[in-house]
Structure formats: C-alpha cells, structure tokens
Amino acid sequence: MRQIRIHVDSPLAEGAEVTLPEQAGEHVARVLRLGVGDAVVLFDGSGGDFPATLTGIARRAVTARVGARREALPESPLRLTLAQGIARGEKMDLIVQKATELGVARIVPIISERTEVRLDAERADKRLAHWRAVAVGACEQSGRARLPQIDAPRPLDAWLATLAGDGAARLALLPEGETAPRALGGLPHQALLAVGPEGGFGERDVAALRAAGFAGLRLGPRILRTETAGLAALAALQALYGDF
Ligand code: SAM
What we know:
The protein is an alpha/beta fold and 244 residues long. The protein has two domains: 5-71, CATH 2.40.240.20; 79-241, Alpha/beta knot (3-Layer(aba) Sandwich). Helix content is 32%, strand content 24%. The protein has six helices and 13 strands. It has helices spanning 22-31, 89-101, 121-142, 156-162, 203-211, 226-241, and strands at 5-7, 17-19, 39-43, 48-57, 62-66, 70-71, 79-85, 106-111, 149-150, 154-155, 169-173, 190-195, 215-217. The strands form two sheets. Strands 7, 8, 9, 10, 11, 12 and 13 form a seven-stranded parallel β-sheet that branches. Strands 1, 2, 3, 4, 5 and 6 form a six-stranded mixed β-sheet that branches. Helix 2 runs parallel beside helix 6. It is elongated and about 60 Å long. Residues 173-175, 177, 195-196, 198, 200-201, 218-220, 222-226, 229 line the site of S-adenosylmethionine.
C-alpha cells in the first residue's frame, strides 16, 4: 500500500505526539478517511523518515505518535543549484515541483534583464511561501526527506555577488553555449545552473555570468522553453554525474 508521507515543519523526535499541519490533517481525515491507529510517515526535512501512528482525529486537529527515525532516500552525490530566471505563473510552479523531484538541492529565483514577472516585496513573500509549499508537496510525493532550499527572489548580480569559491561548477544555459553536458568531462560534487527567463538572458546578464566564471552549456540545437531547459539540464547532469 502507498505510504502517506507528511511534512511537519518542526523537528521530530521518537515518542512525541504531534499535530499534523492543518491541510495535511484535513486530507488524512476527510479525503483518505484514515482513523486512529492508521499508519503515516512523517518527515521534518532534515533527511530522515519517522513512521507514525494516528492518535486523534478531531475536526480541527489530527495528531500522531512519532516512531523511531529511519534513514530515508539518500540525496544525490551531485549537489545541484538551479538559478532560474523567474517564469510566469504556473510555469514557475512546474519548475519548482519537477526540479524537486529531480533532486535539486537549492533553487534561486532570479530577476534578470528580461524578467517579465514584477514582484513587489509582499508579492515576492507570497510567491516564495507558495513555491516552498510546492516543493514540500513534491517531497511528500517523491519520497524525498530533505527539502530543497528555496531562496527569496533576487537580481542576477546580487546572486552572483554571493557566490563563494567553493569549487562548484558554474554553468549558464545558453542556446549558443560552447559546451554540452557530456563534454564537461566530470563535475565536482556541486554545480550551479543558471537558466534564463522566457525571453532569455540579455547581453548584460551574459557578460555578468561570464565575468563570474560561468561556462555556456548548450542542450542540443533546439531552443527550449525556459521550463524545459532547466529540467532537461538537471536530468542530464543527474544521469551523467549524479544518481540517475
Ligand atoms: N531567444 C532566447 C535566447 O536566445 O536566449 C530564447 C530563450 S529560451 C526560451 C529560455 C532559456 O532557456 C534560455 O535563456 C536558456 O537559458 C535556456 N535554453 C533554451 N534552449 C536552450 C538550449 N538549446 N541550450 C541551452 N539553453 C537553452
């Protein structure tokens, strides 16, 4: 039987009784119609799974007793950061969901020269909370026990200025890029992958990426939509250097 996996936003410990997040509680009680004594699996995003037993199903609170932590799925040996030019509406949700399934470790929503989406501070906060919820759902569904980090949206230059000399491969997806995924000749254990928005990177963006040491990565001869490009690159890199 399929395991019901539920993310709980606070550290879990064996023997504790926890109240499930409201939406998850409602799903468990009303949609799945589980009852006291039924089994679920909880995770807090730190990498382990906790089998748990439902102990209370009330209208507003579903509770569960936490069992012993067990190791969950390992993360990919290739730590991938996706710096994604913010795409419109549901496309960005799709990117966050699928990138999480594909094992991305971190997503940085990027504002670049040709970004069409306008986000004031309040909207940016709402979008970020929404994207984090999308990633939680993807972890619950895919069996992943570690949540990818999702950063607040930031300008490309501001992100580049934060990069440390940690030895991560720096790759910018460019249709005219000079290298292909399989020609990278191995990768360190970390890679940064920058993807342009719907209109692509502008000249100033490309100059800034180049100045920061990014190589141009080309995914074949066709122009891919932004939501295809990043996901295709993640899959290719996982297949060549990660855990596919
Ligand atoms: N005319 C735009 C250009 O030349 O950049 C097309 C933009 S494309 C719809 C959106 C983003 O997807 C690009 O900025 C790039 O990051 C990525 N992309 C699309 N096709 C690609 C390819 N064949 N190779 C590498 N990156 C690609």
